[in-house]
Amino acid sequence: MADSPLEREDYRAEHCILPELRHIGWSRFPHAAVGHLGSHQHEGFEICYLVGGSVDWWAGHEVYEVGPGQVYITRPGETHGGVGAAMNPCELYWLQIVVPGQGVLQGLSAEVTRELHRGLNQAVPRVFPGVPAMPALYQSILEEHRQPAPLSVLKARGALHQLLALVWRCRQAFARRHAQALAQRSGAVRRALALIEQSGPAELGVTQLAGQVGLGVSQFRALFERDTGFAPARYLMRRRLRLARQALAQGKSISRTAAGLGFSSSQHFATAFKQWVGMTPRAYRQMSRQARPVEPYM
Q1: 7-182, which class in CATH?
Q2: What are the per-10-residue average pLDDT scores of the chain (298 residues)?
Q3: Where exactly does CATH 1.10.10.60 map onto the chain?
Q4: CATH superfamily of 187-290
Q5: How many angstroms separate the CA atoms of 56 and 242, rounded?
Q6: What is the largest CA-CA distance in the chain?
Q7: How many CB atoms lie within 10 A of CB 125?
Q8: In whole angstroms, what is the distance from residue 123 CA to residue 60 CA?
């Protein structure tokens, strides 16, 4: 298990060519990295974009699963970190920026600055889909930091403003879609979700759920995916593995965790866990045990 990323590029405040930036960077973690993301806060907003892999991050009292193509935002002064102070195998970009609630962000009007601050300062959604153009904009800003030249500030700020506009639009669009989806969610899917939360992690399968809400399996699958964005089997697996991470972080044995979650064997559990989480259950449990308060990586 590696304790440092294979590749990393980042610029902190004293080396940022844009004074509104406090930190910007990129990293690729080929292995889980213990002690890289302990509890910490930032002066400005932090905006992360996950290129590949997945991470388990927490903010306040909530844990968030962030996957490829998703954006994750924390607000100024908000305590956050990685579950177990760790980074899962992943590739990501991030930046920290100070956007004043009153006043202006360089290159923007007071009205636009206020609207940007309002959009970034929302408590939810914290995680939402980004767009493929985002990594290139992060990379454009980084390129201008490597060898600053005449007009580097202009080019970097232009890319930054494009990125901020995309983040703002993606967040607002996802919030609208999510609210509409909740309002339009069918009664059968609502009942199914309630049953899933009320049941043990190994008690219900797709066939049983369909029967309990009075639908055929094919109809139930189609309706569930339409209303939640997940096939029911995938939704159930995500829930089981979320509970598995919690159990392993508490030091429970792999065999007991696998049996309690309804996996046919420890090997079946280990295969599914590595496929979804990016490391073996043993490595995840060891990582959680080794976690300690550290200087934050990002």
Answers
A1: mainly beta
A2: 64 96 95 79 96 88 87 95 82 97 94 96 93 98 95 97 98 89 85 88 85 93 87 88 84 92 92 81 77 47
A3: 187-290
A4: Homeodomain-like (1.10.10.60)
A5: 10
A6: 67
A7: 17
A8: 11
